[in-house]
Automatic annotation (TrEMBL):
Bilayer-crossing regions: 48-69, 129-153, 182-201, 228-248, 268-288, 295-313, 325-345, 366-383, 418-438
Pfam families linked: YhfT (PF10797)
Keyword terms of this UniProt record: Membrane, Transmembrane, Transmembrane helix
Organism per entry: Biomaibacter acetigenes
Domain of life: Bacteria
InterPro entries: Uncharacterised_YhfT
Protein name: Uncharacterized protein
Length: 441
């Protein structure tokens, strides 16, 4: 535990410093505003207010809900607050101290809370494992939704049919790689993404006007490149805490990794990594363009350091101390490769605007399918929240869960949908325990 506290403290201190110096932040919405701050056109108090306003909801909803349901730290919980703390602190040493203090405090708090949950008579933590079950199956359909949005129903329908056929061919082991079965949802998602890229490039190839590829980002690229030592250490530490099974970086992987770590079923890691990689590609245009426009990079880069830490490093170098060291090294090298290729990627996005436009539809589609998947998964989880020795489905728990979800919807969604269903499942687990203790269940 002390090692965990120490590593997370150092990481949060560095991300807070990166924000203080205007070198990197986690929040994509804050990044475009940062030049106003580090170039002196916006005062610290004003920038702090903006950062807090943009981040507070995500910290409380997504950050808290995902960590409570998975027992894994996440970037919304760690790095959104350090974005704020780095800007708030008038001195660099204070930014580092505040960041480290946040890392230690939040890690210790959620560790204690998880221990408390384990002591409850109705085991809600095992039941919450069901929350992740529909995630990959639902997530694999996001390309279909994106194609429907951007290229119309005919191409969307074609993609859906191809995805489902490919999925079943893989599930029935008719398609394999040298006799090795392919994870059905991984092939399904690959086909969808491939079709999306083909449609986007075909549209741009047919267009007469091409982007000029004007070189307007050189100064910002150099500014990010000059921040490489700090960014590489942060990237290495993010990969390290992913490798140490303390951290899940995305809404796609948090429950799946929690389930895999609990059951030891590491065969699914490659599917989770593939999903995280595709998610990273979807966010790539947003992060690249905001970084080139602002000179401020993402503290987790293009997010590829997540699968590098929990999948690539242990696959290549095994687990244990050497594997942890290599996770750090690979994470740092990933950031080096990303920053080195930053300008090149930016030029590519300028030449193929449909791919850049597709990223907006992809992110929206991802959110939509994940909202549905997490809602279904949360409902499945609460139905399994039974007292010791009781079998069947707990419809009292479902009634509580459905009530909480609908109250949030009725109140205009103070908690965003992506986080509301996991949070409702957690609160349901606590209330079910109270019902059990007062003999009303």
């Amino acid at each position: 535990m002390f090692i965990k506290l120490g590593v997370v403290a150092v990481l949060c201190a560095l991300t807070s410093l990166a924000s203080h110096y205007g070198r990197a932040v986690f929040h994509d919405g804050i990044r475009p505003i940062m030049p106003e701050y580090y170039q002196g056109r916006m005062k610290r108090a004003e920038m702090s207010s903006v950062a807090f306003g943009l981040s507070a909801g995500f910290i409380v909803s997504v950050g808290f809900a995902f960590t409570l349901s998975s027992n894994l730290l996440n970037p919304w919980l760690l790095f959104l607050p350090t974005d704020i703390l780095g800007v708030v602190a008038p001195y660099s040493w204070l930014a580092a101290v505040l960041g480290a203090g946040w890392g230690i405090g939040v890690t210790a708090f959620f560790g204690a809370l998880n221990t408390l949950f384990k002591l409850m008579p109705v085991n809600m933590l095992d039941a919450l494992g069901a929350l992740s079950s529909p995630v990959i199956a639902g997530f694999a359909l996001f390309p279909v939704l994106a194609i429907f949005s951007q290229f119309g129903w005919k191409k969307g329908a074609i993609t859906l049919v191809l995805e489902l056929i490919a999925r079943q061919l893989a599930a029935l082991k008719i398609i394999t790689v040298g006799g090795t079965p392919i994870y059905a949802e991984a092939l399904e998602m690959f086909i969808g993404v491939l079709m999306l890229i083909i449609f986007a490039i075909s549209k741009d190839m047919g267009a007469k006007d091409k982007a000029s590829g004007e070189n307007i980002f050189e100064a910002n690229t150099r500014r990010i490149f000059n921040s490489l030592p700090l960014l590489m250490v942060i990237g290495g530490l993010v990969a390290l805490i992913s490798n140490m099974k303390w951290f899940a970086g995305s809404e796609v992987d948090f429950q799946l990794l929690s389930q895999i770590y609990a059951t030891g079923n590491k065969g699914q890691l490659i599917s989770v990594a593939a999903a995280d990689f595709v998610r990273g590609l979807a966010f790539l245009p947003l992060i690249v363009t905001t970084s080139l426009a602002s000179g401020v990079y993402g503290v987790v880069g293009l997010t590829f350091v997540y699968p590098v830490g929990y999948w690539l490093a242990p696959t290549l170098f095994g687990e244990g101390f050497f594997g942890h060291i290599m996770a750090f090294v690979l994470g740092a090298l990933t950031i080096l490769a990303e920053v080195s290729a930053l300008r090149l990627v930016g030029v590519g996005l300028e030449k193929f605007p449909s791919i850049r436009e597709a990223s907006d539809n992809i992110r929206t589609s991802m959110n939509n399918v994940l909202e549905i998947a997490l809602l279904v998964g949360s409902a499945m989880a609460v139905l399994n929240m039974n007292p010791p020795g009781v079998q069947g489905q707990n419809w009292l728990a479902f009634a509580i869960f459905a009530s909480l979800y609908m109250i949030n919807e009725t109140l205009g969604r103070p908690i965003i949908r992506l986080a509301s269903s996991p949070l409702a499942a957690i609160i349901t687990g606590i209330l079910v325990n109270i019902f059990y203790l007062i003999h009303l269940m």
